[in-house]
Design goal:
It is a single chain. With about 170 residues, this protein is mostly beta strands. Helices cover about 0% and strands about 45% of the residues. The chain is built from no helices and 18 strands. It has strands spanning about 5-10, 15, 20, 25-30, 30, 40, 45, 50-60, 65, 75-80, 85, 90, 95, 105, 115-120, 130-140, 150, 155-160. The strands form seven sheets. A four-stranded mixed sheet has the order 3-10-8-6, with no helix packed on it. A hairpin with a 6-residue loop joins strand 15 and strand 16 (about 130-140). The chain is rod-shaped. The N and C termini lie far apart (about 130 Å).
Length: about 170
């Protein structure tokens, strides 16, 4: 009887250095050499920022093998990076002591339809110089996942100054 040799096919690969950035929609890793006729794939489409593994398998390991002679699954790592978003700081950076928490306002716009970034920032109470640091408390709408964003320009210097006290008028007549 004739000897049947498995047909050898190249393992698919990822493009070196390719990166994806969160945009609120499905993103699919691009593979070099993937053939839907002979291969299955899973884990190749994601939405949220994170590290993922796409798995490629042979549809028919009885008749096909990888060029290295193996027939096992091929795992390919890929990543969706958090979207960088700049903090918008309020223009007021000088405050007068009032005994309450004060600091510049901070906000950030997601740029992704239906997603609102909720920003918190550090404040000060007493007279002095401070650095306010903004961070994401949550994201409303859409994926509602704060890990999909990374703030840039997230610090701002500000001061709280002494409150001027009026000197009482002197009524002394002596």
């Amino acid at each position: 009887s004739p000897i049947v040799t498995k047909k050898s096919i190249e393992k698919p690969t990822t493009t070196e250095g390719i990166s994806y950035t969160y945009n609120g929609t499905n993103q699919t890793i691009n593979l070099n050499g993937f053939d839907g006729e002979t291969m299955n794939i899973s884990g190749n489409t994601e939405i949220d920022a994170g590290s993922y593994t796409a798995t490629v398998s042979l549809k028919d390991s009885n008749n096909y093998q990888w060029t290295d002679g193996s027939t096992g699954n091929v795992s390919l790592s890929w990543k969706i990076n958090a979207k960088s978003v700049a903090v918008t700081w309020g223009s007021t950076t000088s405050f007068v002591y009032n005994g309450k928490e004060q600091g510049p306002t901070a906000s950030a716009t997601s740029g992704v339809s239906g997603e609102t970034i909720n920003v918190i920032r550090t404040t000060g109470v007493n007279v002095g110089s401070y650095t306010s640091t903004a961070s994401i408390s949550s994201v409303s709408g859409g994926r509602a996942n704060k890990n999909n964003y990374a703030l840039t320009g997230n610090t701002k210097q500000f001061t709280i100054n002494k409150k001027a006290i009026q000197k009482p008028a002197s009524n002394y007549s002596g």
